[in-house]
Inverse folding.
């Protein structure tokens, strides 16, 4: 049942129906309606992502969403999650908050965070970390720098006031993650040119995604991803069900020429995914695909073509990371992806997201001429019993 917080006239409603979930999604669109850089997400995609029957994340996580209502008007929202696949670090149990959006009112943020924290504490959590929307393998962090450009596909966008409001609730920085951007047509630094000109080492082969073996290719990608990222901060393995669902959702969007694998001595060892920026294609659809949105979206992606690309995933199996061949493979993958993107008319690449202390990935991105243009902050707070 909803409960009333008389101190601020706010009613907190646990989201439990389809109608309430639509309100939860629509709230962010209303709050950001005047922001020229806000991109209205597709309603069907957001509904699927936040519905247990269609998102495998719910198979290994506890999730609760809430709406804050004042005077009959939705004024805020938040989520709380406990991912049972998360690797615990230190003493205690970590839960996550996310999906935070609210009017610029400290009282709303206070009640939302108190609600989420109480839910986490009741389930044994001693630390809150976020925002994760819903998982660390999805949208992460609160935008704290880079408000003047639109976010790319599967990246977040927040109002300028949000960070201060979160910090007022006792949250401090845990990590920053970066989005890098570059013009792929710009000249590459000499060190990269020299590495690429040497050609592929003996036994190394690059190939495109094989759409005829799509499901197997997605499984191979998942295996490499979980191996390559296993020692990263905050790592949570991606299940085959989650990757299969994502692969299904992106199948009509992916261009096999922009998904590349590297094989070393016949073994699939590394990959890179260059994802056309769907956000550029859904502008003006107002979150709707009916009656004509599907046709517009596919025309913009397949015929008109968007001009920007996000590189959300790249990985190399750890067994090859210290070998000479393994060390040059990422440069060849990125260069091959760059060449393919240029040939297809793309003129803007984003490398994201990258942890602030992931220096190998940062160095590779910077070697390709990319610069940081957005910063997202992950916050943490100790929860008092």
């Amino acid at each position: 049942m909803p409960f009333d917080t008389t101190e601020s006239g706010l009613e907190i409603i646990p989201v439990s129906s389809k109608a309430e979930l639509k309100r939860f999604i629509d709230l962010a669109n209303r709050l950001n309606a005047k922001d020229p850089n806000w991109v209205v997400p597709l309603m069907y995609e957001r509904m699927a992502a936040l519905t247990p029957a269609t998102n495998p994340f719910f198979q290994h996580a506890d999730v609760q969403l809430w709406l804050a209502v004042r005077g009959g008007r939705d004024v805020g929202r938040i989520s709380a999650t406990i991912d049972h696949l998360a690797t615990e670090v230190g003493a205690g149990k970590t839960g996550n908050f996310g999906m935070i959006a609210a009017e610029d009112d400290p009282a709303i943020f206070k009640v939302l965070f108190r609600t989420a924290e109480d839910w986490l504490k009741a389930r044994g959590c001693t630390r809150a970390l976020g925002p994760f929307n819903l998982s660390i393998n999805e949208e992460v962090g609160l935008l704290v720098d880079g408000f003047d450009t639109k976010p790319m596909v599967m990246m977040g966008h927040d109002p300028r006031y949000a960070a201060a409001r979160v910090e007022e609730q006792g949250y401090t920085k845990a990590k920053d993650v970066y989005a890098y951007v570059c013009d792929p047509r710009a000249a590459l630094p000499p060190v990269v040119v020299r590495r690429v000109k040497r050609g592929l080492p003996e036994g190394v082969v690059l190939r495109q995604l094989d759409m005829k073996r799509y499901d197997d290719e997605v499984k191979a990608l998942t295996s490499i991803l979980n191996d390559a990222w296993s020692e990263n901060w905050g790592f949570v393995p991606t299940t085959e069900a989650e990757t299969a669902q994502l692969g299904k959702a992106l199948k009509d969007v992916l261009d096999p020429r922009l998904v590349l694998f590297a094989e070393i001595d016949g073994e699939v060892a590394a990959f890179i995914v260059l994802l056309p920026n769907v956000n550029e294609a859904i502008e003006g659809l107002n979150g709707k695909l009916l009656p004509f949105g599907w046709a517009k979206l596919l025309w913009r992606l397949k015929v008109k073509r968007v001009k920007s690309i996000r590189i959300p995933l790249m990985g190399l199996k750890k067994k090859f990371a210290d070998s000479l061949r393994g060390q040059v493979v990422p440069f060849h993958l990125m260069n091959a992806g760059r060449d393919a993107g240029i040939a297809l008319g793309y003129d803007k690449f984003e490398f994201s997201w990258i942890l602030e202390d992931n220096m190998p990935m940062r160095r590779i991105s910077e070697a390709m001429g990319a610069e940081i243009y957005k910063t997202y902050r992950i916050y943490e707070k100790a929860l008092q019993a």
